[in-house]
Hints:
alpha/beta
Amino acid sequence: MAxxxxxxxxxxxxxxxxxxxxxxxxxxAPVLVVPGGGRFAEAVRDxxxxxxxxxxxxxxxxxxxxxxxxSFGLPVTDLLxxxxxxxxxxxxxxxxxxxPFPHRWEITSDTIAAWVAHTLGLDLILLKSVDxxxxxxxxxxxxxxxxxxxxxxxxxxxxxxxxxxxxxxxxGRYPERIVAALAGRPVHGTxxxx
Length: 194
């Protein structure tokens, strides 16, 4: 039996969404997908919304991407619970109810996914369009302390390190890496902590 996990699907993988959803459904693993914001969140940034309005608009943008993922057959849920089969979390209701973060642009779907994983006591896999975390042009296989990077939001690393959330950052454009990560096998990417 596969171990339940939270998988954050970055908005940069928009073009890969149908294939990734098909893969997750074929594996039938207990994966709770947290959608990124991607182009939907960029529209919020482009309109200039800041603070509380911008925050909730960006969380709503995650829901838009979640609904898009559901169009390929991924069931939706707005419940913060461990799943038995793949599902995508529509986070707006839970985020409004708990409101766990300051309302600023440094908190993105990366850290929101980490909050979901921490709340559920699960590991986190971040699917990105990069091979892992780079800092100063150097790829890091392991990250055990905060560092400057543009590959994840600036709050993610301190958050997962302080809360002990096992986190793996991999390139979601390689299906074999997703399969390996979900199976707990070694995979090219960055492990944060542990």
